[in-house]
């Protein structure tokens, strides 16, 4: 039976690239998505066309009942959970902190910080050897913004990623003797559709000259790091982060 991997935010960008790569590595992939059914189904179709196994499940990771249903569906349809990629995240238009609304903060933290907590909780409950599971791996998709702060653009988004990183470190220590490894990746400026959500579709091109390597990254380059951390090749790595940011 294939190892089942759940990827949140799996319909586009880094999530979609990770889903396709993981499927080629032998995972049965559950693509969790919030709204873009067409894109999610396209990823599933691409994986199946290449001989892999995949399903798509609509979910709002900020809702506990949705998250529980996601894991139950993935397990029932594909088999025991062996991995989780917490990739789903939202961003909002560029704003200074003094102009950010309470509603925006609540939604940002609900999706980007609480969502990964809920998903990780459900993954641990199923994978922990202490609970009868077979172990597994969790990879949290953070951002270089967690270290840089994203002043004048989206400090709130950066702060949610800082929370995600702290959770990564703490959870890694908590389940290290239960067969579960927990790591993170920090993408830098990557060509994905997320930048349009922030009001600047061309943001990567604007900033690429500030990157030591002189270019933006591709989702597939981040996917390689994620899938490596999921794999047995990273068997002694937990509580750490891989920077995939061209040196910035």
Automatic annotation (TrEMBL):
Q: Indicate yes or no for the key word Oxidoreductase.
A: yes
- Name the InterPro entries on file: KR_dom, NAD(P)-bd_dom_sf, Sc_DH/Rdtase_CS, SDR_fam
Q: Which family does it belong to?
A: Belongs to the short-chain dehydrogenases/reductases (SDR) family.
**Which GO molecular function annotations are given, in alphabetical order?**
oxidoreductase activity, acting on CH-OH group of donors
Q: Which Gene3D superfamilies match?
A: NAD(P)-binding Rossmann-like Domain (3.40.50.720)
The UniProt entry, under Pfam families, shows: adh_short_C2 (PF13561)
Keywords, comma-separated and alphabetical: Oxidoreductase
Question: What's the protein here called?
Answer: NAD(P)-dependent oxidoreductase
Q: Which organism is it from?
A: Bordetella genomosp. 8
